[in-house]
Amino acid sequence: xxxxxxxxxxxxxxxxxxxxxxxxxxxxxxxxxxxxxxxxxxxxxxxxxxxxxxxxxxxxxxxxxxxxxxxxxxxxxxxxxxxxxxxxxxxxxxxxxxxxxxxxxxxxxxxxxxxxxxxxxxxxxxxxxxxxxxxxxxxxxxxxxxxxxxxxxxxxxxxxxxxxxxxxxxxxxxxxxxxxxxxxxxxxxxxxxxxxxxxxxxxxxxxxxxxxxxxxxxxxxxxxxxxxxxxxxxxxxxxxxxxxxxxxxxxxxxxxxxxxxxxxxxxxxxxxxxxxxxxxxxxxxxxxxxxxxxxxxxxxxxxxxxxxxxxxxxxxxxxxxxxxxxxxxxxxxxxxxxxxxxxxxxxxxxxxxxxxxxxxxxxxxxxxxxxxxxxxxxxxxxxxxxxxxxxxxxxxxxxxxxxxxxxxxxxxxxxxxxxxxxxxxxxxxxxxxxxxxxxxxxxxx
Length: 445
Prior knowledge:
Helices cover 25% and strands 32% of the residues. It is an alpha/beta fold. The chain folds into four domains: 5-50; 58-182, Immunoglobulin-like (Sandwich), CATH 2.60.40; 204-248, no CATH class; 252-438, Rossmann fold (3-Layer(aba) Sandwich), CATH 3.40.50. The chain has a six-stranded mixed beta sheet, sandwiched between helices. The model is unreliable at 69-74, 192-208, 332-343 and 440-445 (pLDDT under 50). This is DUF58 domain-containing protein. Keywords: Membrane, Transmembrane, Transmembrane helix.
């Protein structure tokens, strides 16, 4: 708790002026009532002088829990263990304040110390109440998580005495939850088909050097001595060669849609679709690189695109992180209707010529126009494996919103029909579960 600041509101000057004014009118009008009434402001001025401090004592306790499907039943936070979540998750906060003094507090005003980076999307972190001794009040509100580590400040407290002329201000540290972390890792990102000729960790349908048995064939001159089945030779005198399932490296490209129409959220306080896509792409990239898969990033804007070639070295990681951070920091647009015209230039046409022939594509886009699904249809025709994570930026609480949502779902159905694996990211689902549902088991292309 910080030191208290005591301020006295001096209103005696106005009271004296009012007294003389009312008394003068009373004398002129010959009204005894006005002359007596002129003394009332003097009593008010006296109260402002003799007003005393209340010496209020309060105690605060804060609890937090994640909202939405997929959360642990015990998803609360303590002082020792910060609550964790994904960007866009909603966290419910309950801060209980108790009057632990022996006297009532006639005017108590509270503001919870919400981290400046996190918007309040429902409820309010403020309260103005009167509390008897031992009585409590609970402040309830919801916040939306943004990327980073966040810590609550102390609760701001302000009290006034009965006359309203003595104001005390101080801070009270709340017990319980005080920290939030929005940097959760993905446990695994299994891969589908698509491999090059370099050794790696993705099993293929080709024989070669590896650890898993693949087939037995007739011996050919030049086969390694260690690959000959000597047991069969001892039994049949026939030379055969054992082949193992070859493991190849696969190159992956995370394609992030950051065009102008992607910077919109379901409401003014919600994260834009482009920000959610960039967060999902960054977590996918980090996990794939950690597993040893060369991974690149492409950010597509309205007129051009920026890319980081697939790789696993520190330079690739740094460049990808910088690119995605730049995509996230672009200007947001909220609650703006989408209007798309057929004459606009398709920025995705340049992407197809830059993709490695064996690459797997992870597309992050909200699908609010036809460009992404047209790209998928072309890539699937060429044999590329495509996975989609599509954050939903549309609020369907109006006729216009419901129509936009219907059109968007139709585009996602087209992408599925083309052979892409699609996850429609409802904001109530944690990002980790969304990404695990997007990625399937390891198969070959």
